[in-house]
Design brief:
Phosphorylase Kinase, domain 1, alpha+beta, binds adenosine monophosphate, nucleotide-binding, 2 domains, CDK, 10 strands
Length: about 350
Amino acid sequence: MLQAATSRSVDVFEKLEQVGEGTYGQVYMARNRLDGEIVALKKVRMDNEKEGFPITAIREIKILKTLDHKNVIKLKEIVTSKVRSPNKTSIYMVFEYMDHDLTGLADRPGIKFTVPQIKCYMKQLLTGLTYCHLNNILHRDIKGSNLLIDNQGVLKLADFGLARPCALENSKTLTNRVITLWYRPPELLLGTQTYGPAVDMWSAGCIFAELLYGKPILPVRDEVEQLDLIFKLCGSPVADEWPEYRELPWSKKYTKQKPFQRRTHEVFRRFPLSARNLIDGLLALNPRKRMTAKDALDSDYFWEEPMPCSPQDLPKYEPSHEFQTRKRRQVRFWCPWCLW
Ligand code: AMP
């Protein structure tokens, strides 16, 4: 599958600078020495070489090879470093190069996205998700630093290291230890092991609210705080709305004496009704009632003035990746919308 024996050497590329540090390896901007093309090289981390090629990378490559869409990052080829000893081969994935990631871009000093710009990014995120979900792929790590944007304004879903095919039969269980905490939906925090595309839609809702609000909306330190903050914003789960909640493995652990009311419309009162309705649909506690990517694209928000701009009409920016802007950014673990 990897065709390592026939793959080209990484020496075809000249590494220019490190632009990212993923969970599974460093990412470099590089130039193809033959035709000058700029690409991204993602090194596959071989932490435990005895166990061979990491299963996460095999999964990522396998999934990326099946996907072909303008809003999904394109894997161009696999290259290997010079083989000194067969066990010491480094493997790199070669991707089209993207100038920014959404977190890096949003963190640039003085950047304030316009409404047509937010609509344009959200439409592309939802179009990419519609495609993945139609092809039965769950991304399972939607967050700003995994949404890459080029200088033509095209947004692409990247980092499929945690992605996997949907469990088609209910009997198949999946891990609930996926999705970066601030973007993780309540059903995973409550321990479910049977889930589907709705997990990515919760993350998309967090991104949307963050784009409007200008800050992450659910920034916390651990799982318990995360669930608490979700319930403070979205209300405590009630049997009428989410009957399956009580059956989730860890639901008993999180029982609060005083139930919270849903506050999404109050917290996001500065935004138009169509935006609040979209946030509400994506941040539905019950995954069965959560909007799908296709429903979200059909929502009024995208069809009323101001209309989304076209990607090519977006402003051009200097390159910005979260890896570089992280040094500037202070990570704050306090909630921007609650006063306690
Ligand atoms: P990943 O391990 O795929 O999450 O990548 C980590 C970081 O590297 C991302 O947040 C991006 O800033 C950067 N990166 C990943 N892929 C690319 C790419 N194709 N072009 C430019 N930067 C990338």
